[in-house]
Design brief:
six-stranded parallel sheet; alpha/beta; 2 domains; Rossmann fold; single chain
């Protein structure tokens, strides 16, 4: 069986959950990843052989920083890509046929489903939202974007199935949906090894700061040392030096192990951070986002979970974190949720490829 997996270039979270699903396929499944995300991400995360084809097939959201979308730039870039995709459809069709692709999966690149329909192979979306959910409101700001939005709707309508990850937006465009659980990575609690390597005493709280590849340089990071009861970890450097911040080499401690080891994660609220905090039973301190339809759904689920605390933008930028962090340390750590959804998604994709249903 040959699975072609088209992955949006919007963020690493889509690639990481793609790998979580692909790692659960049976050993006889051949995998080809098509994405603009860097290959190194998949080299790090996929525990099996795979083929890789680089290419920008969508753009997700162009962002001004970690939490703010540039709507006009997003619409302009997507319209450019959509025009190029029309020209390369025949090449993708030829490749799918020559490579004997059995099923095309999209997370959640609209073009994937158009390719599948043209090639006559089944297709399935794996996501907690569709780009139609995100882009539809942009038409009121960029009216010329309407044509692309309607094209995306038709592309999604051609899919055979959407595996709707928890918690989910409407997944507009998909005619048929099946609900799935939360997909992400489960790590190992290595807090003792981390403390020993970094010389951190047990009376200090541990927090992981993760803002993705877009930092928030406007934050007053020089105040981090004022949070004297805490030591902070990160896989990206800060714009200033702070004695209680430690940049971590991912070859020493994997990200999911860091997530499982700290007292809380401080991050923007995206699906990847959300899923891995729940899968590892780690409290979450998150920053509000604007102009992104996924956010209210994720925040509602975090509130229902009961172990997340929101920082308003001003609080985050001024590092006014003391009350929130004290609340986290004073509470109980939640139990990790079951890690079964990635296996469920992989099995369902294989079933669709074999039986077409």
């Amino acid at each position: 069986m040959h699975v072609a997996y088209y992955v949006t270039g919007h963020g690493f979270g889509h690639g990481i959950r793609t790998c979580a699903v692909c790692n659960r396929f049976n050993n006889d499944v051949k995998i080809t990843i098509r994405t603009s995300l860097p290959r190194r991400l998949f080299d790090e995360e996929l525990k099996r052989e795979f083929a890789f084809v680089s290419g920008e097939l969508d753009c997700g959201c162009i962002q001004k920083d970690s939490v703010t979308v540039d709507i006009e730039a997003t619409a302009r870039r997507y319209m450019e890509i959509d025009a190029v995709n029309a020209e390369r459809l025949s090449a993708h069709l030829t490749w799918a046929r020559d490579s004997r692709v059995d099923v095309i999966v999209g997370d959640i690149t609209p073009f994937a489903f158009e390719v599948a329909r043209a090639a006559g192979v089944p297709s399935v979306g794996v996501s907690n939202f569709s780009w139609l959910d995100i882009y539809a409101p942009y038409v009121s700001i960029v009216p010329s974007f309407r044509f692309c939005v309607e094209h995306i709707r038709r592309q999604y309508e051609s899919a055979d199935l959407a595996l709707a990850l928890t918690p989910q937006n409407e997944l507009q465009g998909f005619r048929r949906r099946e609900n799935m659980g939360i997909v992400g990575r489960r790590g190992r609690n290595r807090s003792e090894a981390i403390r020993e390597r970094l010389g951190i005493s047990r009376d200090k709280g541990l927090a992981l700061i993760y803002l993705g590849t877009f930092g928030l340089d406007a934050a007053t990071w020089e105040r981090l040392e004022e949070l004297a009861g805490w030591e902070f970890l990160g896989i990206h450097s800060l714009p200033v030096t702070a004695r209680n911040f430690h940049e971590i080499d991912k070859t020493a401690f994997r990200y999911e192990d860091l997530c499982a080891s700290v007292d809380c994660v401080i991050s923007k609220l995206g699906y990847g951070v959300y899923s891995e905090c729940l899968l590892n039973g780690t409290p979450l301190v998150y920053i509000g986002r604007t102009d992104f339809a996924e956010f209210p759904v994720l925040e509602g689920s975090v509130r229902e979970w009961g172990h997340g605390r929101r920082l308003e933008t001003g609080q985050f930028l001024s590092l006014d974190w003391t009350d929130v962090l004290d609340h986290i340390r004073g509470g109980r750590r939640p139990s990790p949720i079951p890690d079964t959804a990635a296996s469920d998604c992989a099995a369902r994709i294989e079933l669709l490829a074999r039986k077409g249903a």
